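From the thread on structure requests for the teaching lab: each student submitted one protein with a one-line request. Submission from student K.M.:

"Model Alanine--tRNA ligase from Microbacterium profundi, tokens only."
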Amino acid sequence: MKTADIAQRYLSYFEKNEHTIVPSASLVSDDPTVMFTIAGMVPFIPYLTGVVPAPYSRAADVQKCIRTNDIEEVGKTVRHGTFFQMLGNWSFGDYFKEGAITYAWELLTTSEADGGLGFQEKDFWVTVYETDDEAADIWRRVIGLPEERIQRLGRADNYWHTGQPGPGGPDSEIFFDRGAEFGRDGGPAADDNRYMELWNLVFMQELLSDVRSQVDFDIAGPLPKKNIDTGMGLERVALLKQGVANMYETDQIRPVLDRAVELSGKRYGAVHEDDVRFRVIADHVRSSLMLLSDGVKPSNEGRGYVLRRLMRRTVRAMRLLGVDAPVFPELFATSRDAMKSAYPVLETDWTRLSGLAVAEEETFLRTLAQGSTILDLALADTKKAGKQTLAGPEAFLLHDTYGFPIDLTLEIAEEAGLNVDRTAFDTLMQEQRTRAKADAKSRKRQLADVSVYRDFRALGETGFAGYTDLDIESRVL
Ligand code: ATP
Ligand code: MG
Ligand code: MG
Ligand code: MG
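Reply posted by the TA:
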């Protein structure tokens, strides 16, 4: 089953059940103080909070998402992309827990011939919020799931919010057991690699006034209506339906991975570190393409900086695979071809998109050349002074001012027989990170009043964008 077919099947199922199908909102909004759409619910916040009356009581969609805080997982787990598509169904004051659970279960377990996704009941486990007897009871009594496959977890796992003031609620999550060869027995509470999270059913029922962390927040009171917000990762369903090892090997991503393998002259599946790099490249190229398509341009701040880092990480990974020549023309065109049936704009806007991608790669290749010259001089000076170690501030300057990656500095220094003062470098990085965090906090504060959420969905094609972790700025390279 192709990724596009799964999306279509999902929408058809909910359309049949009286849901209005709505198009994906943009990955970014017009509001510069917020970063990206991190989940399907973000464009619906005005309806969930009741600030704007929902124009329909049921909706379903496939929402484009970017999650930069998953970047360290990409290529290492089977299931985390920086870009992914979230299948969602929504009830605004209509059905609640029992409706959400029974719809999800029916779609997952109905045979493919009858329009479902054709999964086996025995492969699923679920979690519910620790005090949510109602949801546990629905799973047991209405669905008939055995007691031992219903687990109860706390706020860290079974409470959903965006990380900022706004709507939130306890949730119930559906996990797929990939089998004993992928990890320990004991359900999702024991092993989230073997038991892969597939679908999150959020019972949106309260307004959060202050959010200090995932588990530490204040509940201001109940929402005017009880709503349903669900999210299922399209790529995760695809990896299961296509019988591949991970999401990077599904049909919308794999072609880029294969092209990177060809360009490198290496083999996928031979060396673990190389395999991770191939998966990172395939993920980042797609994310970059989708961000460019939604109007982001590489730059040194905000969203543009995130995009720049994704693109530069791609170039860096290709170099570590032995390719120094430009690769974006090939890789971006491959990603376009894999994604264009779902997003035709990738083809119609191609001249602009490829122009931006190619220019960014050229700039970075120049940066690398310039940084290498500066580093060579610094290394020669260090040696001349009879020292064994390149000073931390020199490495930091290369990183901070010239965008020259620290791992490259370490590698080249080592080839020259020198160390790098990593402790001093890390201290400087930490200081920079603290500055970035303070900056992010002051931006977040501007969003404290949920009444500022505008109704982008009603206004047209752009969408409200959630805020994600700015730490990416210091972690990516
Ligand atoms: P995980 O625990 O696996 O990181 P999550 O709990 O962070 O997932 P949710 O915020 O509950 O994810 O999002 C709803 C659904 O979206 C998930 O159940 C999953 O199917 C999908 N999803 C979340 N993050 C990603 C990602 N980075 N890449 C692909 N799919 C994702
Ligand atoms: Mg996650
Ligand atoms: Mg989770
Ligand atoms: Mg979840």
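TA comment: Residues 446-477 have pLDDT under 50 and may be disordered. The first strand starts at residue 20 and ends at 21.
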